Protein backbone atom coordinates (compact mmCIF):
# COMPACT_ATOMS: atom_id res chain seq x y z
CA UNK A 1 0.00 0.00 0.00
CA UNK A 2 1.18 3.51 -0.86
CA UNK A 3 -0.19 6.74 0.47
CA UNK A 4 -2.06 9.10 -1.86
CA UNK A 5 -0.16 12.37 -1.44
CA UNK A 6 -1.39 15.54 -3.12
CA UNK A 7 1.45 17.81 -4.18
CA UNK A 8 2.35 20.22 -6.94
CA UNK A 9 5.72 21.86 -7.64
CA UNK A 10 3.92 25.19 -7.20
CA UNK A 11 3.65 24.44 -3.44
CA UNK A 12 7.40 24.95 -3.05
CA UNK A 13 7.73 28.62 -3.97
CA UNK A 14 11.45 29.45 -4.38
CA UNK A 15 13.01 31.92 -1.99
CA UNK A 16 10.61 31.10 0.86
CA UNK A 17 12.21 28.41 3.08
CA UNK A 18 8.94 27.39 4.77
CA UNK A 19 7.51 26.62 1.32
CA UNK A 20 10.64 25.42 -0.48
CA UNK A 21 11.08 22.70 2.15
CA UNK A 22 7.97 20.98 0.78
CA UNK A 23 9.93 19.93 -2.31
CA UNK A 24 12.43 18.17 -0.03
CA UNK A 25 9.58 16.38 1.74
CA UNK A 26 8.03 15.32 -1.57
CA UNK A 27 11.32 13.81 -2.73
CA UNK A 28 11.80 12.10 0.63
CA UNK A 29 8.35 10.49 0.55
CA UNK A 30 8.74 9.43 -3.07
CA UNK A 31 12.24 8.01 -2.65
CA UNK A 32 11.15 6.05 0.43
CA UNK A 33 8.50 4.35 -1.68
CA UNK A 34 5.59 5.35 0.55
CA UNK A 35 3.84 7.90 -1.67
CA UNK A 36 1.89 8.09 -4.89
CA UNK A 37 2.08 11.78 -5.77
CA UNK A 38 -1.10 13.32 -7.20
CA UNK A 39 -1.15 16.75 -8.83
CA UNK A 40 -4.29 18.66 -7.79
CA UNK A 41 -6.42 20.50 -10.36
CA UNK A 42 -6.41 24.27 -10.72
CA UNK A 43 -7.98 26.12 -7.82
CA UNK A 44 -11.17 28.13 -8.18
CA UNK A 45 -10.55 31.13 -5.92
CA UNK A 46 -14.28 31.93 -5.92
CA UNK A 47 -14.66 29.04 -3.47
CA UNK A 48 -13.08 31.34 -0.87
CA UNK A 49 -15.86 33.94 -1.16
CA UNK A 50 -17.82 34.05 2.06
CA UNK A 51 -15.01 32.42 4.04
CA UNK A 52 -12.52 35.28 4.05
CA UNK A 53 -13.60 38.87 3.51
CA UNK A 54 -13.76 40.18 -0.03
CA UNK A 55 -11.34 42.98 0.84
CA UNK A 56 -8.69 40.51 1.97
CA UNK A 57 -9.24 38.07 -0.91
CA UNK A 58 -8.93 40.85 -3.46
CA UNK A 59 -5.79 42.20 -1.80
CA UNK A 60 -4.15 38.78 -1.62
CA UNK A 61 -4.97 37.95 -5.22
CA UNK A 62 -3.66 41.24 -6.59
CA UNK A 63 -0.79 41.83 -4.13
CA UNK A 64 -2.30 44.96 -2.58
CA UNK A 65 -0.37 45.95 0.52
CA UNK A 66 -0.42 45.90 3.46
CA UNK A 67 -3.15 43.22 3.50
CA UNK A 68 -1.46 40.96 0.96
CA UNK A 69 1.50 40.26 3.26
CA UNK A 70 -0.30 40.04 6.61
CA UNK A 71 0.63 36.37 6.98
CA UNK A 72 4.22 37.51 7.60
CA UNK A 73 5.63 36.31 4.29
CA UNK A 74 6.12 39.11 1.77
CA UNK A 75 3.66 38.69 -1.05
CA UNK A 76 4.76 37.79 -4.55
CA UNK A 77 2.97 35.88 -7.31
CA UNK A 78 4.79 32.67 -6.38
CA UNK A 79 3.56 32.86 -2.78
CA UNK A 80 0.01 33.49 -3.99
CA UNK A 81 0.14 30.62 -6.48
CA UNK A 82 1.64 28.27 -3.87
CA UNK A 83 -1.24 29.08 -1.54
CA UNK A 84 -3.86 28.46 -4.21
CA UNK A 85 -2.20 25.20 -5.26
CA UNK A 86 -2.17 23.93 -1.64
CA UNK A 87 -5.86 24.82 -1.29
CA UNK A 88 -6.62 22.88 -4.47
CA UNK A 89 -4.73 19.94 -3.00
CA UNK A 90 -6.72 20.27 0.21
CA UNK A 91 -10.04 19.92 -1.57
CA UNK A 92 -8.82 17.12 -3.84
CA UNK A 93 -7.39 15.24 -0.85
CA UNK A 94 -10.68 15.61 1.05
CA UNK A 95 -12.55 14.07 -1.87
CA UNK A 96 -10.00 11.26 -2.08
CA UNK A 97 -10.35 10.60 1.65
CA UNK A 98 -14.12 10.36 1.35
CA UNK A 99 -13.72 7.82 -1.46
CA UNK A 100 -10.76 5.81 -0.13
CA UNK A 101 -10.52 6.51 3.61
CA UNK A 102 -7.14 8.28 3.76
CA UNK A 103 -5.19 10.99 1.95
CA UNK A 104 -2.30 13.36 2.60
CA UNK A 105 -1.88 16.91 1.35
CA UNK A 106 1.79 17.92 1.49
CA UNK A 107 0.79 21.41 2.59
CA UNK A 108 1.47 23.81 5.45
CA UNK A 109 0.27 27.25 6.45
CA UNK A 110 -3.47 27.23 7.17
CA UNK A 111 -4.50 27.39 10.81
CA UNK A 112 -3.60 30.97 11.84
CA UNK A 113 -5.41 32.70 8.96
CA UNK A 114 -8.55 34.54 10.16
CA UNK A 115 -11.42 35.93 8.06
CA UNK A 116 -9.98 39.44 7.61
CA UNK A 117 -6.26 38.68 7.07
CA UNK A 118 -3.41 36.25 7.13
CA UNK A 119 -1.33 35.52 10.22
CA UNK A 120 1.55 33.37 11.43
CA UNK A 121 2.79 32.37 7.94
CA UNK A 122 -0.76 31.29 7.02
CA UNK A 123 -2.42 33.22 4.20
CA UNK A 124 -5.77 31.44 3.79
CA UNK A 125 -7.42 28.87 6.02
CA UNK A 126 -7.48 25.60 4.13
CA UNK A 127 -8.89 23.75 7.15
CA UNK A 128 -11.99 25.90 7.41
CA UNK A 129 -12.29 25.89 3.60
CA UNK A 130 -13.36 22.24 3.57
CA UNK A 131 -16.24 22.97 5.95
CA UNK A 132 -17.13 26.06 3.91
CA UNK A 133 -17.23 24.20 0.57
CA UNK A 134 -19.22 21.24 1.98
CA UNK A 135 -21.59 22.78 4.56
CA UNK A 136 -23.57 19.57 4.99
CA UNK A 137 -20.44 17.70 6.14
CA UNK A 138 -19.10 17.85 9.69
CA UNK A 139 -15.35 18.50 9.63
CA UNK A 140 -13.27 17.80 12.75
CA UNK A 141 -9.76 19.25 12.86
CA UNK A 142 -7.19 17.60 15.13
CA UNK A 143 -4.45 20.22 15.24
CA UNK A 144 -1.20 18.96 16.76
CA UNK A 145 1.14 21.81 15.91
CA UNK A 146 3.50 23.69 18.22
CA UNK A 147 1.16 26.68 17.89
CA UNK A 148 -2.54 26.69 18.71
CA UNK A 149 -4.97 26.87 15.79
CA UNK A 150 -6.45 30.26 16.62
CA UNK A 151 -7.65 30.96 13.09
CA UNK A 152 -9.48 27.66 12.77
CA UNK A 153 -10.97 28.31 16.21
CA UNK A 154 -12.36 31.63 14.96
CA UNK A 155 -13.87 29.95 11.92
CA UNK A 156 -15.35 27.21 14.13
CA UNK A 157 -17.32 29.91 15.93
CA UNK A 158 -18.81 30.92 12.56
CA UNK A 159 -19.25 27.62 10.74
CA UNK A 160 -21.63 25.23 12.51
CA UNK A 161 -20.10 22.17 10.79
CA UNK A 162 -16.48 22.91 11.81
CA UNK A 163 -14.88 21.56 14.99
CA UNK A 164 -11.32 22.18 16.21
CA UNK A 165 -9.35 20.28 18.85
CA UNK A 166 -5.91 21.86 19.19
CA UNK A 167 -2.98 20.39 21.17
CA UNK A 168 -0.06 22.82 21.34
CA UNK A 169 2.90 24.05 23.32
CA UNK A 170 2.40 27.72 22.41
CA UNK A 171 -1.15 29.01 22.76
CA UNK A 172 -1.05 31.63 19.98
CA UNK A 173 -4.42 33.04 21.06
CA UNK A 174 -6.21 29.68 21.03
CA UNK A 175 -8.60 29.93 23.99
CA UNK A 176 -11.54 27.67 23.08
CA UNK A 177 -15.20 28.12 22.26
CA UNK A 178 -18.33 26.00 21.79
CA UNK A 179 -16.76 23.97 18.95
CA UNK A 180 -13.06 24.48 19.67
CA UNK A 181 -11.13 22.82 22.49
CA UNK A 182 -7.55 23.82 23.45
CA UNK A 183 -5.04 21.49 25.11
CA UNK A 184 -1.69 23.00 26.14
CA UNK A 185 0.97 20.31 26.53
CA UNK A 186 4.64 20.80 27.40
CA UNK A 187 6.29 17.48 28.13
CA UNK A 188 9.09 18.82 30.37
CA UNK A 189 6.47 20.47 32.58
CA UNK A 190 3.53 18.06 32.27
CA UNK A 191 5.21 14.66 31.99
CA UNK A 192 6.22 12.25 29.26
CA UNK A 193 2.71 10.88 28.65
CA UNK A 194 0.82 14.17 28.84
CA UNK A 195 0.23 14.25 25.10
CA UNK A 196 -1.44 10.84 25.19
CA UNK A 197 -3.80 12.00 27.94
CA UNK A 198 -4.73 15.05 25.89
CA UNK A 199 -5.29 12.90 22.82
CA UNK A 200 -7.55 10.58 24.82
CA UNK A 201 -9.68 13.61 25.71
CA UNK A 202 -9.73 14.64 22.04
CA UNK A 203 -10.85 11.13 21.10
CA UNK A 204 -13.86 11.49 23.39
CA UNK A 205 -14.77 14.75 21.64
CA UNK A 206 -14.33 13.06 18.28
CA UNK A 207 -16.61 10.17 19.11
CA UNK A 208 -19.33 12.49 20.44
CA UNK A 209 -19.14 14.72 17.37
CA UNK A 210 -19.21 11.83 14.85
CA UNK A 211 -17.82 13.92 11.97
CA UNK A 212 -17.81 13.08 8.27
CA UNK A 213 -14.10 13.92 7.91
CA UNK A 214 -11.08 14.35 10.17
CA UNK A 215 -8.32 16.75 9.14
CA UNK A 216 -5.10 16.16 11.07
CA UNK A 217 -2.38 18.81 11.35
CA UNK A 218 0.78 16.80 12.03
CA UNK A 219 3.09 19.62 13.03
CA UNK A 220 6.83 18.93 12.97
CA UNK A 221 7.56 22.07 14.98
CA UNK A 222 6.58 20.30 18.22
CA UNK A 223 9.85 18.37 17.93
CA UNK A 224 12.43 19.08 20.62
CA UNK A 225 14.99 20.07 17.98
CA UNK A 226 12.80 22.79 16.50
CA UNK A 227 13.80 26.35 17.48
CA UNK A 228 10.16 27.28 18.12
CA UNK A 229 9.25 24.21 20.20
CA UNK A 230 7.99 24.51 23.74
CA UNK A 231 6.19 21.16 23.49
CA UNK A 232 9.51 19.28 23.63
CA UNK A 233 8.43 16.15 21.75
CA UNK A 234 11.17 13.60 21.12
CA UNK A 235 11.16 11.74 17.82
CA UNK A 236 9.60 8.81 19.64
CA UNK A 237 6.91 10.99 21.24
CA UNK A 238 5.98 12.45 17.84
CA UNK A 239 5.54 8.92 16.47
CA UNK A 240 3.41 8.04 19.51
CA UNK A 241 1.31 11.14 18.84
CA UNK A 242 0.82 10.28 15.19
CA UNK A 243 -0.03 6.65 15.87
CA UNK A 244 -2.54 7.65 18.55
CA UNK A 245 -4.31 10.06 16.17
CA UNK A 246 -4.40 7.62 13.26
CA UNK A 247 -5.64 4.81 15.50
CA UNK A 248 -8.47 6.85 17.04
CA UNK A 249 -9.68 7.89 13.61
CA UNK A 250 -9.34 4.41 12.10
CA UNK A 251 -11.17 2.88 15.07
CA UNK A 252 -14.00 5.40 14.64
CA UNK A 253 -14.22 4.56 10.94
CA UNK A 254 -13.97 8.20 9.80
CA UNK A 255 -12.32 9.28 6.52
CA UNK A 256 -9.12 11.21 7.15
CA UNK A 257 -6.94 13.82 5.49
CA UNK A 258 -3.67 14.97 7.03
CA UNK A 259 -1.25 17.80 6.32
CA UNK A 260 2.31 18.50 7.49
CA UNK A 261 1.74 21.91 9.16
CA UNK A 262 4.68 23.70 10.82
CA UNK A 263 8.42 23.03 11.02
CA UNK A 264 11.46 25.30 11.34
CA UNK A 265 14.47 22.97 11.44
CA UNK A 266 16.56 22.13 8.38
CA UNK A 267 14.39 20.98 5.48
CA UNK A 268 15.90 17.48 5.55
CA UNK A 269 15.14 17.09 9.27
CA UNK A 270 11.54 18.21 8.79
CA UNK A 271 11.17 15.84 5.84
CA UNK A 272 12.26 12.92 8.01
CA UNK A 273 9.58 13.82 10.56
CA UNK A 274 7.00 14.05 7.77
CA UNK A 275 8.13 10.63 6.51
CA UNK A 276 7.64 9.12 9.96
CA UNK A 277 4.11 10.55 10.06
CA UNK A 278 3.35 9.03 6.65
CA UNK A 279 4.70 5.66 7.76
CA UNK A 280 2.56 5.81 10.90
CA UNK A 281 -0.51 6.42 8.73
CA UNK A 282 0.30 3.44 6.52
CA UNK A 283 1.02 1.25 9.54
CA UNK A 284 -2.46 1.92 10.95
CA UNK A 285 -4.55 2.16 7.79
CA UNK A 286 -2.98 -0.75 5.88
CA UNK A 287 -4.18 -3.23 8.48
CA UNK A 288 -7.33 -5.15 7.62
Could you give a quick summary of the protein structure above?
By secondary structure, this protein is of the alpha/beta class.
CATH superfamily: Histone deacetylase domain
Biggest sheet: strands side by side, in what order? 2-1-3-8-7-4-5-6
How far the N terminus sits from the C terminus, by CA atoms, comes to 12 Å
Largest sheet: 8 strands, parallel
The CATH topology name reads Arginase, Chain A
Query: What string, H for helix and E for strand, traces the elements in order?
Result: EHEHHEHEHEEHHEHEH
Layout of strands and helices, then pairs:
Blueprint: E1 3-6, H1 17-31, E2 35-38, H2 54-62, H3 77-100, E3 102-105, H4 126-133, E4 139-144, H5 150-156, E5 162-168, E6 180-184, H6 187-190, H7 194-209, E7 213-218, H8 235-252, E8 256-259, H9 267-285
Parallel strand pairs: 1-2, 1-3, 3-8, 4-5, 4-7, 5-6, 7-8
Helix pairs in contact: 1-9, 3-4, 7-8, 8-9
Name a few traits of the molecule.
288 residues, alpha/beta, Arginase, Chain A, eight-stranded parallel β-sheet
Amino acid sequence: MKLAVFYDHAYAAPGVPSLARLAVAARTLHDAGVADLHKPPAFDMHLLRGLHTDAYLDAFDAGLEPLASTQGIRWNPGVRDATYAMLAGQLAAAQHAWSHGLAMNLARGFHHAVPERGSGFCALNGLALIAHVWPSMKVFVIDCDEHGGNGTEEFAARLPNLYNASMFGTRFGCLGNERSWPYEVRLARDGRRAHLRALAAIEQRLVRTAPDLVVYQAGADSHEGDPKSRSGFSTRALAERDLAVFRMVRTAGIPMLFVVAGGYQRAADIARINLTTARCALRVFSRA
